[in-house]
Write a structure and sequence with these properties.
By secondary structure, the chain is mainly beta. It has 1 helix and 13 strands, in the order αβββββββββββββ. The strands form 2 sheets. Strands 1, 3, 4, 6, 9, 10, 11 and 13 form an 8-stranded antiparallel β-sheet that branches. Strands 2-5-12-7-8 form a 5-stranded antiparallel β-sheet, with no helix packed on it. A hairpin with a 2-residue loop joins strand 9 and strand 10.
Amino acid sequence: MKRFLVASLALSMIVVAAVRTHADDDDDGWISMFDGKSLDGWKINEKPESWKIEDGVIVANGDRSHLFFMRHDRPFVNFEFQAEVMTEKGSNSGIFFHTKFQEEGWPRIGYESQVNNTQGDPQKTGGLYNTVKVLEAPAKDGVWFTQYIKVDGKHVVVKIDGETVVDYTEPDDVGGTVRLGEGTFALQAHDPGSTVRYRNLKVRRLP
């Protein structure tokens, strides 16, 4: 009987340890931003018809509109963000960070990490719009690529499919509203000729 109890206890400890390890691997501080079914936790500022969910992904297509992430208890300061993105030919979009909800117009606060592989704007995917220009697209239309953004203090890193395309340290004397501070994220529907898809969006706060 004692041997049975000891064996049972040992097995229980192994199971608990395995469950705990699995939970840590799944969690690890990352927060899923999109459930694949709805825009719960997001808010559209104008032209809601520019957004839809199709086959479990967010689709941006239509007149200018921005989709803001609103499901958070405090602004994001230091973080890692990641999303899988797919562009159609001639499409333009963007991922804003350290921004704030506004009712209409192009977001005035925070940085935009460009999403554009073949559209006419010379600033291509990954660049910080009008701050750090990427002039050669690091990704292709019609295939999923991963766009990663990290902010740590004044330091911004953007990677496309694991390759660094932006490594930027913001000067202390930067003025205006396009600057680091705190805020949330927003996705961009740029124009009716642009179709861009987003999935597996997640964020992890850093100290």
